[in-house]
Every structure is written in C-alpha cells, then in structure tokens.
Design a protein that fits this description.
With 149 residues, this protein is α/β, with parallel strands linked by helices. It is 42% helix and 13% strand. It has a single domain, classed as Response regulator (Rossmann fold). It has a five-stranded parallel β-sheet. It is globular and about 45 Å long.
C-alpha cells in the first residue's frame, strides 16, 4: 500500500488578488465570503507589489487572480516577469486572469504566456460569486508541485 501524500490544507493556501480598483477588491472579498471561501486573500493594487511578494514569500498560494489592465505593471507584464523568473516558474502557482474586460485581442495576448485561464467578473454580484466559486473550487481539487508538504 502506498502512503497518501501529505498535502497542504487547501483552505490555508492564500488567494492572490491583483486589482487596482478598490471597489472591485471589496466586491471580490464579499463574493468570496458569500461563497463560504475562507482562504486568506492577499490583495495587491499593482503587479509590482505582487511580484515582490511572490519573490519573497514562503506561503504557497492557491491561485493568482490578476486583472489585465492596470497602471504601472499590467497583468500581461506581471505574467511575463513570472514566466521569466526560474524560481517563480518552479513554484507553479496557477495564474488566472480575472477581469471586467475581454475581447479577441486581449484573450489572444493572454494566452501567449503561461496561464491557466481568462475569466470575466460578470455583470452582477451573483455572476462574480459564481465565477470565483468555480475558479477556487477547481484549484482546490487540482494538484500542483507545491501542494505537498
């Protein structure tokens, strides 16, 4: 019989949310709470702050939810910096674009790098809640290299 792997409890893994709009940060927080998702959330207003955190933390994030269009470092630039950093690449943190905006060009540009999805926030609170629940539930069931203790 093979021993079961020792997994990091998924509910303890933080969700990284990169969003420059404070109202959207608050809505995401409320939607996560309403969906009974209790993971800690690390909020960052821009890609540069998030990159510094990712380069220095010992935490094992569950997923990165990143807006596309932000001042300073865009979501695309952040994703490119993560892809170019061998240490961050080895962390294998799922990277999901989570935006209000989508068109063919944005989605094509998003998939030029290593990502695990492009999701719209939706037009209502219920849509936002459903989309977040879908993303988080999926990643709580999907293993990646840093899922193990």
């Amino acid at each position: 019989m093979v021993d079961s792997p020792k997994l990091i409890p998924f509910d303890l893994m933080p969700i990284i949310h990169i969003e420059n709009d404070v109202d959207d940060q608050c809505l995401v927080a409320e939607a996560l709470k309403a969906s009974s998702i209790h993971n800690p959330v690390r909020y960052f207003a821009d890609g540069q702050q998030a990159l510094l955190y990712l380069q220095t933390t010992d935490e094992v994030p569950l997923v990165i939810l990143c807006d596309v269009i932000m001042p300073g470092m865009s979501g695309f630039a952040l994703r490119d910096r993560i892809d170019a950093d061998p240490v961050l690449r080895m962390k294998a943190i799922p990277f999901v674009y989570f935006s209000t905006w989508a068109n063919k060009e944005l989605v094509e540009q998003a998939y030029q790098g290593t990502i695990q999805g492009y999701h719209l926030k939706g037009k209502s609170f219920a849509d936002l809640q459903a989309e977040l629940s879908l993303i988080v539930t999926y990643w709580k069931h999907c293993l990646h290299p840093r899922s193990f203790q």
